[in-house]
Amino acid sequence: MSSKSKQDAATSLGRRQWLAGSAGALATMGLGAANGQAHAQAQSAASAPALPVAPAKPPLPAYAAWKDAGAVIIHSSSTIETKRQAFGNGLITPAEQLYVRNNLPAPSASILENRDAWEISIEGVKQPRVLSLRELKTMGLETTPMVLQCSGNGRGFFPNKPSGTPWTVGAAGCVVWTGVSVRQLVESLGGTMAGMDFMTGTGGELLPEGLDPKSIMVERSVPAKAMADALLAWEMNGVPIPLAHGGPLRLIVPGYQGVNQIKYVKRLAFTAQESDAKIMAHGYRISPPGAKADPSQPSVLEMNVKSWITSPLPERAAAAGQVQIQGLAFGGQRAVKRVEVSVDAGKTWKEARLVGPDLGKYAWRQFVLAAKLPAGTHTLMSRAIDTAGNAQPEQRLENVGGYNNNSVLDHAVTVTLA
Fold first, then answer.
1. Which stretches make up the Moybdenum cofactor oxidoreductase dimerisation domain (predicted)?
2. Strand partners, 81
């Protein structure tokens, strides 16, 4: 945003705040009423019970101030969700609408002043090196469209209200990453050392002093085989990765949940064991209800097959008659084979049509079903099936953290057509 745009935005905000404050003052003083009624209305207002005031919507944080505020839900300064009705007819999610989830505060924007100078340590290979982004750009180039999804996407549907952001469907997007292939990079460094079963990425966030770094750092391990399609990416949707999404350099592991896509990555190590950082050893575990997280429980790694309807919605109503039921589906580690849609709360199902280009197994697919719906209330559902025959389940997997929710029932929508 240019300095003039920022100044105009600040002026507009200031004017809105002044108008809001002025309106409140006028109401309190009775100056907004007709001359003959001002005193009586002021007395009546003073004795009447106060009306509830809607809480003010939080502003976009500075590092994501360029986001489209009308297309997102701002849960906090580190959690921003795409509105369900904001998913349009395109396959690629615009950066200004893409969700944000940070486990730690974003670093200073100064790290973007000289992107090419950013350095990453490659360890656990036969020829370990510290490489600058400038050097990485000479070592190969790949582009991968893929679904980026927070593992807590769908947590808001859990009835027990797990701790964490109550995402519904908007902690996901389909974006295009460009960078160097990790597999090719490792090959150029002589391959991995023997016995290195995990690929471990470490983020470059600034850690608070006085704390054990392992207790707060963002460091995650995935099976070493994931390097096959992984990238060290410096572009997102054709432009340098914004700070809000992990620029200048991000580890991208297609088919895995968002917590494993390490932002501001400064270390990529091939290790014999998983990281012992808290976020790996105890965080993001599929813990049964009532249990405490521990390393023996499954970690949040691969995404599972999932879909949801984007139109019609309660917020995006349609008229009775011929209706185009639209949605999005993805398979995680595999491509989507087909999507089925129900217009009667799951009693009957029809196969939807996949539309738009196929951008590869890691990207999502659009689907549409033309249906003639009478006036009234309808519960619409979708279920995706991947190329291995895995079908989206009817029920969620109950767990303490509210992770990996791909339930058909939870993602259904009820609409009223007139």
1. 299-408
2. 73
- Record the tokens describing residue 374, joined without a space: 């009478």
- Residue 219: partners with Cβ closer than 8 Å, 6 or more residues away: 200, 201, 202, 203, 262, 275, 277, 279, 280
Stretch (H or E) spanning 26: helix 3-29
Residue 387: which of 350, 340, 334, 351 has the closest Cα?
334
SS3 call for 12 = helix
pLDDT one-digit tens code per residue, 149-176: 999 999 999 999 999 999 999 999 999 9
Q: Which two tokens stand for residue 42?
A: 């002021």
**Contact at 8 Å (CB) between 167 and 150?**
yes
CA distances from 326 to 88, 341, 362 (A): 10, 9, 20
Query: Which DSSP category does 375 fall into?
Result: S
What are the structural domains of the chain? 62-281 (3.90.420.10), 306-417 (2.60.40.650)
Q: Is-cis flag, bond preceding 58, omega within 30? A: no
Residue 331 backbone dihedrals phi, psi, to 5 degrees? -115, 5
User: Residue 23 gets which letter from DSSP?
Assistant: H
> What is each CA distance from 248 to 78, 108, 138, 186, 303, in whole angstroms?
18, 12, 16, 20, 25
Phi, psi angles (nearest 5°) of residue 377: -100, 135
Sign of CA dihedral 233, 237, 240, 244: negative
pLDDT tens, residue by residue, 35-45: 444 344 444 44
Between CA 386 and CA 363 the distance in angstroms is 12
* Cα–Cα distance measured from residue 405 to residue 300, given in angstroms and rounded to the nearest whole number: 11
Q: What is the mean pLDDT of the chain?
A: 90
Q: DSSP letter string over 291-327?
A: PPP-TTSPBS-B---EEEEEESBTTB---SEEEEEEE
Question: Whole-angstrom Cα distance, residue 40 to residue 36?
Answer: 8
What's the distance, Cα to Cα, between the start and end of the chain in Å? 43
Token representation of residue 37: 């009624």
Query: Which tokens belong to 383?
Result: 């279920």
Residue 278's SS3 state is helix
